[in-house]
Amino acid sequence: MKAAVRLVYSADVDVQTYVSPDPDDDGVWVRLIVGPEGGPGEESFDVLVCTPLWLRRVIRTEGPQIGRHHLIVEPFDLRLAIGFLLRRFEELEAPTYDELAEKLARLGLWEFEDHRET
Fold first, then answer.
1. pLDDT at 50
2. 19 phi/psi in degrees, rounded to 5
3. pTM
4. Which of 9, 10, 26, 97 could covalently link to 20 via disulfide, CB atoms 3.0 to 4.6 Å apart?
5. Phi, psi at residue 37, to the nearest 5°?
6. What is the 3-state secondary structure (H, E, C) of 52-72?
7. Nearest 5°: CA angle at 49, between 46 and 5?
8. Phi-psi category of 96—alpha, beta or left, where left has phi over 0 and alpha has psi -120 to 50?
9. Are β-strands 3-9 and 27-36 bridged in parallel, bridged antiparallel, or unpaired?
């Protein structure tokens, strides 16, 4: 089974038209809506696309950061970063969607990452 990215967007910027005001120092959260290729259903995976300088500035002001679900780029080009993410998400395979989602969660913050059925 493979993943199909159905939608990519950001709550902060228009991912189709965004041009960074400072390509050396920028960071934007991106959400990918992903489901099984050829099947119903979808779930969200969030990735922070940022530059090393942006990350360095955040560390200086906010302290240490956990690096999960970050895509570090230089310079900041959101369209190139999204193209990279699309390829990475869509190249993964697994026997079941649950196993595929576990792999996808290594790339982006899965909306059900810590969900446990009781």
1. 98
2. -125, 120
3. 0.90
4. 26
5. -60, 125
6. HHHHHHHHHHHCCCCCCCEEE
7. 45
8. beta
9. antiparallel
Give the integer Cα–Cα distance in Å for 75 and 84: 14
CB 78 within 8 A of CB 54: no
Burial label for 9, CB within 10 Å (0-12, 13-18, 19+), is middle
pLDDT at 94: 96
**DSSP string covering the chain:** -BEEEEEEE-SSS-TTT---S-TTS-EEEEEEEEEETTSS--EEEEEEEE-HHHHHHHHHHH-----TTEEE-SS--HHHHHHHHHHHHHH-B-SSHHHHHHHHTTTSEETTTT----
> Beta-carbon neighbour count of residue 65 at 10 Å?
12
Report the pLDDT value the prediction gives residue 103, as an integer from 0 to 100.
Answer: 94
